[in-house]
Write a structure and sequence with these properties.
Rossmann fold; 2 domains; eight-stranded mixed beta sheet; 17 strands; 26% helix; globular; binds S-adenosylmethionine
Length: 424
Amino acid sequence: MPARQATSLPDIKPQTPVGALDRNAWSQRDEQFTADDVAPLVGMSITFIRKVVGHRGPLSVSDVLLLLDQDAYSETFLRRSQVLDFLTQSTPDSATDSEIEVETHTLVSGSVTDVLDRLAPASVQCVVTSTPYWGMRIYDDSTLVTWADGETCAYGHEQTPEGFVRHTVQILWQLRRALTPDASVWWNLMDSYNTRTQIRGNAIEALLAMQGKDGRKWNEHEARRHSAGHSYLKDGEQCMIPARVAERASRIGYHVRSVITWAKQSSLPEPQNSRVSRGLEYVLHLAPKRTPKFDKSAYRRIQPALGGRSIGYESDKLSDVWVLPTSSGGNGHGAQFPVALPGRCIALSTDPGDVVLDPFVGSGNAGVAARALDRKFIGIDVSPKYLATAEEKISAVPGSGFEAAATERPVDNAHQDLPMTGVD
Ligand SMILES: C[S@@+](CC[C@H](N)C(=O)[O-])C[C@H]1O[C@@H](n2cnc3c(N)ncnc32)[C@H](O)[C@@H]1O
């Protein structure tokens, strides 16, 4: 699924396509599949699949049709009508792409959908990332990706929230191969509302628009989002994207260890008078197994700028509500997370020398945290411009040991009160 550069971003019109599984066409076919290949596509465990089909051998097309008809079936990263197409298509040969060599830090340019297949199997101990959110931001160097469900769009610019959820789950599925058995995945994301709105480059632009200081007319914006045509979402409704991603992560085999609320120490004012304002984002903690590597005491050992306890906001007990600052932004990237967020995730779930991956590295804050904590780091982004910023920031961090980082190294966290990340 090679990505290509976008010249312009089309508007988002959340019109659910009409489509259904053609059972008659498939019932004549005689291909066979392993249960391991089928399970993440039908959203069921191997044990449940065995219970439904009644045998332990390879699965036939009629076994898969039986699974697709179950009450327990639920979509993961393909529509129901696409599952058998996906299972029977030949896998593209990626042997020509070289495996990524991990230095103290390595930054790779390209779409995550292409680059993840170049990571060594079972090599990544921790993934910590903040993805584009659905229909919220325009990034530099936006890149069109053709996804497994057939949609071609920049990530975050899907026509429906369901498309965004599928693409997110596809990335999580592609990641599985590269994770060590006791790895952790920390997935920062935020929900979107199904509203008619202009899509902007950063939160400051949104704030100026709220203050009536954006002189552009509706049609003069680079990309817009409409709200009509969805199969059930009404205008102005919250889409419930983080919850849907968490459920599907479980259905493709992850253990959902926690759904963490990041209570932001500051957030933008919102003009809506019929609902409360948003002040949170989510961090999904996912793991290939029930007991990932985990050092809860790191929270009390490291400095707040690297994710230790936020003095005055958090107690000594590390709970699933994290009160962390928002990022000051800067460096020309409009949706950064604070170093403290990846720092906390990395300190909790890795040891010095382990490999940390941010597949949407942006301006490099996860890399800054990883190097300050003496972990190896891989960052991926489609934007050469953001990667250049990340390189500059990460190489300025002299990684020299976890304990030293915990007590001595100052990390810039001085602009906690400026709202920037992930707010539309
Ligand atoms: C929310 S930002 C990440 C910001 C980062 N956490 C930081 O602190 O600077 C999301 C990033 O994903 C990148 N991106 C978008 N689509 C991508 C894709 N298909 N593959 C890799 N990166 C992508 C964007 O260029 C953007 O930098």
